[in-house]
Design a protein that fits this description.
44% of the residues lie in helices and 18% in strands. The protein contains 6 helices and 7 strands; from the N terminus they run αββαββαβαβαβα. A 7-stranded mixed β-sheet has the order 1-3-4-2-5-6-7, with helices on both faces. α4 links the parallel β5 and β6.
């Protein structure tokens, strides 16, 4: 009887979390600004979730799918099209941050170096950054450039979560192997969040779980703010 009750309770909590995520991402999401230098970064306003990954990994597509928009974030088949840190305000509760892709891009060395410095400055100095979603193409797995970013986040003590993209492109067996490899990888990194998300913007897979995870961050931020106000 107790086991059944516990199971029912877990199911109810999971359903409630998914509903909170749905309500959060059903709110208006608006573009705030895009910046190219550290000096232009906006003042911390809301808890932030940043999306990072290799060029053409599907960051913009995932952002559009999560927010139920088609053109919130610009998508392209050309790697390196996102050249700014783009901020999107979600319902006055959460800031979504689209970071420039890394790894390769059709730009000069000086431009790429500038992007990389901007990303590092943002990741190291953003006090309201709650989580970085490190997107990994399920067809390619974790690359050396991904591990370099993971090491940077470890050193900066920034919590990050691996998010597999384009999972609809892989067969179940291959996808399971990729997830196992990702789980083994994050077990070796101190700042990594233990849960690996598997998503497909095209087939709308894993979106509910991702929204629920991000909604929980807004609740924890609110709780911390309330405690700070009382102290």
């Amino acid at each position: 009887m107790n086991q059944i009750s516990a199971g029912d309770d877990d199911s109810a909590k999971a359903a409630a979390a998914i509903e909170r995520g749905r309500l959060l991402f059903a709110q208006e999401c608006e573009f705030v600004m895009g910046v190219r230098t550290e000096a232009d970064l906006p003042k911390p306003e809301l808890p932030e979730v940043a999306f990072a990954g290799r060029s053409n990994v599907g960051k913009s597509s995932l952002l559009n799918a999560l927010t139920n928009r088609r053109t919130l974030a610009r998508t392209s088949n050309t790697p390196g099209r996102t050249r700014e840190v783009n901020f999107f305000r979600l319902g006055g509760e959460l800031m979504l941050v689209d970071l420039p892709g890394y790894g390769f891009a059709r730009a000069g060395k000086e431009e790429i170096a500038r992007w990389n410095k901007l990303i590092e400055d943002y990741l190291r100095g953003r006090v309201n950054l709650r989580r970085v979603c490190l997107l990994i193409d399920a067809r390619r797995g974790i690359a050396a450039s991904d591990r370099a970013v993971m090491e940077l986040l470890d050193k900066a003590a920034v919590v990050y979560q691996l998010v597999l993209t384009k999972v609809d492109k892989e067969k179940p067996g291959a996808l399971a192997k990729i997830r196992d490899e990702a789980a083994a990888e994050i077990s070796r990194h101190g700042a990594a969040y233990p849960e690996v998300l598997a998503t497909s913007a095209a087939k709308r897979l894993g979106l509910e779980e991702a929204r629920a995870s991000f909604a929980a961050l807004t609740e924890s931020a609110l709780a911390e703010s309330t405690l700070a106000d009382r102290s």
